[in-house]
Amino acid sequence: MLLLLPPSETKVQGGTGRSLLLRGLSFPELTSVRSRVLTGLAELSRDRDAAIRALKLGPQGHGEVAVNRAVRRSATLPAVDRYTGVLYDALDARSLPEQAREAAGRLVVIQSALFGPIGALDPIPAYRLSHSSNLPGVRLAPTWAEPAGRAIESRGGLVVDLRSEGYAALGPIRDTDRSVYIRVVSVDGSGHRRALNHFNKKTKGLFTRAVLESGIDVDSIEDLAAWAGTAGFVLRPGVVAGEWDLVVPDEALASTASRAG
C-alpha cells in the first residue's frame, strides 16, 4: 500500500543533513527528470524579478528566490519533516513512535513539484515551487505526468491517493483497479455532501497518522475502509467511480467552529 500526499508551500528552513543527492531519493529512475526541473529552477532564479512573478511571491516571500538559488548546496531534512502547514501539522511526523515513522518511510510518498514523488524520509532541501509554477523550458505537468505516474505504479499494491487535484496531475495513476482517489467531504443530516478545504488537509493528516500508528498495510480499499471504521473514520464509495469519500461529520465542523468563535 502507498499513501500519496501533496506537499506544502510552507517549509521548515535549514536542515541537519548533507546537501541534496538526487540518486539518494526514492524512485531513482526519475533522476534525469529531477535534474531537468532543477536546471529550469536555477535558470529562473538568476532573474530575481522574473522568479518573483513566476512563483507568485508576495513581498514577504521574496527571500524564497535566494532559497531556490541555494537548493543544490543547502542542508536537508526528511521530506515529511520539511513540509509544514495544516496537513503536516496534523500528521506531526516528528512525534510519531519509531515503528510508525519507519512505516512512513515504506508507505508514504509525497508529490513534489520539484522532485516528483519522493519517500517521506527522503532528505530534501528547502525550496519554493508549486504545481502551477512556470519554469523556463519546463512545463511541470507534461514533464512529470508520465514518468512519475509510472514510477508510483511500479511499487505495486493499493495506491491511496490523498493528493490535491493539482498535484495528482503531476503523476496520474492510470491503473484504476489498484488505486483510489480520496476526497474529504462533510455530509449533513439530509445526506447532502460538500467538499471541504481546511478540514480536507487536517483530516488527511490525521488519517495518515492513524494508518502509520496502526501498522496496517492492506491490499484493497474495502479492507482499508473496514479498518477506518474501527479507527474513528468513515471511508465510503464516492459519487464518481474510482473515488472514495473520507467523511467529516457535520457535528465535528460545528464543534470546531464553536471553539473558534
TrEMBL record:
It holds the Pfam family H2O2_YaaD. GO terms for biological process: response to hydroperoxide. It comes from the Bacteria. GO terms for cellular component: cytosol. InterPro entries: YaaA (IPR005583). PANTHER family: PEROXIDE STRESS RESISTANCE PROTEIN YAAA, PEROXIDE STRESS RESPONSE PROTEIN YAAA. This is Peroxide stress protein YaaA.
